[in-house]
């Protein structure tokens, strides 16, 4: 079963991180939602965080993982939020199991196909040589040769952990992502529809959800509403957590 952190009591609310992320990224917001009377489940997807490492990786498999998690925790109806890759998982889950989902929240991703655009990040991650037992500063220096954006770099460095004394490693399964990176951009199957309240939140400085995408989104999610966080990029929930929280809680309540 997927690794999770569970906070609070009340209506089950599942939160799914993005590609190369983990449940820890949502700890602060998760606690805030728990304080509002939700039982918040912060999930680690397969090949991320502390969840199972597998050579198999696809949205269909991740949706099956979430379904199995709900069964294992006796969650019959849920609200679900996903960011980026997690948003794709949440969309597919809601369209596959609409009877289980009351409300769906998707952060800065649409149902369309996205071409592979993580090449530079993967190059930086693959350039880290853990066999020479680098320090955290060494890993950061290597990543800095490829990744200039401070926020992206810090986001990736959160995945570092001590595998054993003196030996750092990444929590995610980089070798599988190197092989299966095309899976991240896969579109939601064209025939799938979720006819319940759905909130899309995009960053005003992000190009993941364009005005021209709205018509296609509404085909899959006819009860969709779109909100924009101004001056925020793809990591909108980290860049403006207060406004993000307010939009989500208003929609849920």
Automatic annotation (TrEMBL):
InterPro entries the record matches: AB_hydrolase_1 (IPR000073), AB_hydrolase_fold (IPR029058)
Gene Ontology MF terms in the entry: hydrolase activity
SUPFAM superfamilies with a match to the protein in the record: alpha/beta-Hydrolases
Pfam families found in the cross-reference section: Abhydrolase_1
Residue intervals of the AB hydrolase-1 domain: 11-109
Keyword tags: Hydrolase
Protein name per the record: Alpha/beta fold hydrolase
Organism: Flavobacterium magnesitis
């Amino acid at each position: 079963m997927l690794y999770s952190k569970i906070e609070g009591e009340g209506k089950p609310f599942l939160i799914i991180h993005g590609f190369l992320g983990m449940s820890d990224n949502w700890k602060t917001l998760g606690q805030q939602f728990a304080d509002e009377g939700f039982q918040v489940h912060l999930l680690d997807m397969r090949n991320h965080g502390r969840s199972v490492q597998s050579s198999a990786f696809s949205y269909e498999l991740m949706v099956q993982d979430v379904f199995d998690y709900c069964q294992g925790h006796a969650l019959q109806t849920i609200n679900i939020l996903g960011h980026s890759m997690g948003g794709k998982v949440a969309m597919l889950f809601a369209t596959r199991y609409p009877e289980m989902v009351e409300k769906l929240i998707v952060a800065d991703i649409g149902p369309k196909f996205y071409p592979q655009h993580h090449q530079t990040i993967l190059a930086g991650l693959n350039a880290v040589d853990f066999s020479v037992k680098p320090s955290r500063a060494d890993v950061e220096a290597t990543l800095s040769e490829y990744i200039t954006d401070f926020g992206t770099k810090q986001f990736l460095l959160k995945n570092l952990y001590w595998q054993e004394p003196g030996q750092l490693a990444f929590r995610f399964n980089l070798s599988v992502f190197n092989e299966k990176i095309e899976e991240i951009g896969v579109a939601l199957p064209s025939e799938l529809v979720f006819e319940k309240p759905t909130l899309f939140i995009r960053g005003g400085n992000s190009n993941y959800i364009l005005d021209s995408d709205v018509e296609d989104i509404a085909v899959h999610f006819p009860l969709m509403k779109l909100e924009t966080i101004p001056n925020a990029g793809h990591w909108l929930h980290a860049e403006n957590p207060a406004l993000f929280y307010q939009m989500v809680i208003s929609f849920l309540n």
